[in-house]
């Protein structure tokens, strides 16, 4: 299905050849909205730079003592953190002791629109976890279950270098499908797919024209 979502946008120079969004169903209640974030790529990157200036990307430590290969920060009322004490959401950045930067309006608007296109109509995210992958960084197969309201979906936005996303089942040993996530792709996972195992394969060498040798993924959640 193709949606001409960008038709009639006023700025003809910036949107001379807008990417068309297409919707791909990848699970019972999960969809990839290809290129849904492309039209706002510059504003999204500016916002991420502003967030990272106040709450820097850092590699956190798992309860088991391993340093994660992806660097992370957060915006919103609550941020996801891990250390030797465990995984949790908290209102304060452990690095600075200050509240996480507010969730930018363009972030929230994008997340709500994407959720609604996927059939989740009252999404009000309070947390946004931002992951930064350098070449070789990965995220092992895991479930996201630290959020209080698991009836609400997760919305994810990918920018920069492409990565292979692993989409597994409800049990770790279930077979997983590989999905290439590219700059501008937005994914919505909810309902019966909300607790499916997932991960990211090690980022292959390369370079993105806007973000360099990096991939950035940010995910919106109802955590509190
Ligand atoms: C499927 N991030 O931050 S986004 C994470 O690309 C995370 O950085 C990956 O997994 C990344 O927790 C993948 C995709 C994602 C996020 C949450 C999900 C897929 C999900 C929750 C349930 C099912
Ligand atoms: Fe996850």
Automatic annotation (TrEMBL):
Highest taxon listed in the record's lineage: Bacteria
Cofactor annotation remark:
Binds 1 Fe(2+) ion per subunit.
Q: What is the reaction catalyzed?
A: a methylated nucleobase within DNA + 2-oxoglutarate + O2 = a nucleobase within DNA + formaldehyde + succinate + CO2
Give a yes or no for keyword Secreted in this entry.
no
PANTHER family documented for this protein: ALKYLATED DNA REPAIR PROTEIN ALKB-RELATED, NUCLEIC ACID DIOXYGENASE ALKBH1
GO molecular function ontology, one term from the record = broad specificity oxidative DNA demethylase activity
One Gene Ontology term of the biological-process aspect is:
oxidative RNA demethylation
Gene name, per UniProt, is alkB
Task: Please name the InterPro entries in this protein's record.
Answer: Alkb, AlkB-like, AlkB-like_sf, Oxoglu/Fe-dep_dioxygenase_dom
Instruction: From the Swiss-Prot or TrEMBL record, give the protein name.
Output: Alpha-ketoglutarate-dependent dioxygenase AlkB
Question: Which leading EC class covers this enzyme?
Answer: oxidoreductase
Q: Which Gene3D superfamilies match?
A: Alpha-ketoglutarate-dependent dioxygenase AlkB-like
């Amino acid at each position: 299905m193709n949606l001409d979502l960008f038709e009639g946008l006023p700025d003809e120079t910036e949107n001379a050849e807008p990417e068309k969004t297409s919707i791909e169903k990848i699970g019972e209640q999960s969809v990839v909205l290809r290129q849904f974030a492309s039209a706002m790529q510059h504003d999204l990157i500016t916002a991420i730079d502003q967030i990272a200036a106040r709450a820097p990307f850092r590699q956190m430590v798992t309860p088991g003592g391993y340093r994660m290969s992806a660097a992370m920060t957060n915006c919103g009322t609550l941020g996801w953190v891990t250390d030797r004490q465990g995984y949790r959401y908290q209102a304060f950045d452990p690095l600075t002791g200050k509240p996480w930067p507010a969730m930018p309006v363009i972030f929230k608007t994008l997340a709500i629109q994407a959720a609604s296109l996927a059939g989740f109509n009252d999404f009000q995210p309070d947390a946004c976890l931002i992951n930064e992958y350098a070449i070789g960084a990965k995220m092992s197969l895991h479930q996201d279950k630290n959020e209080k309201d698991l009836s609400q979906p997760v919305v994810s936005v990918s920018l920069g270098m492409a990565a292979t996303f692993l989409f597994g089942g409800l049990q770790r040993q279930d077979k997983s499908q590989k999905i290439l996530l590219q700059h501008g792709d937005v994914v919505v996972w909810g309902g019966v797919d909300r607790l499916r195992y997932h991960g990211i394969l090690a980022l292959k060498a390369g370079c993105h024209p806007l973000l360099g040798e990096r991939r950035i993924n940010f995910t919106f959640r109802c955590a509190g």
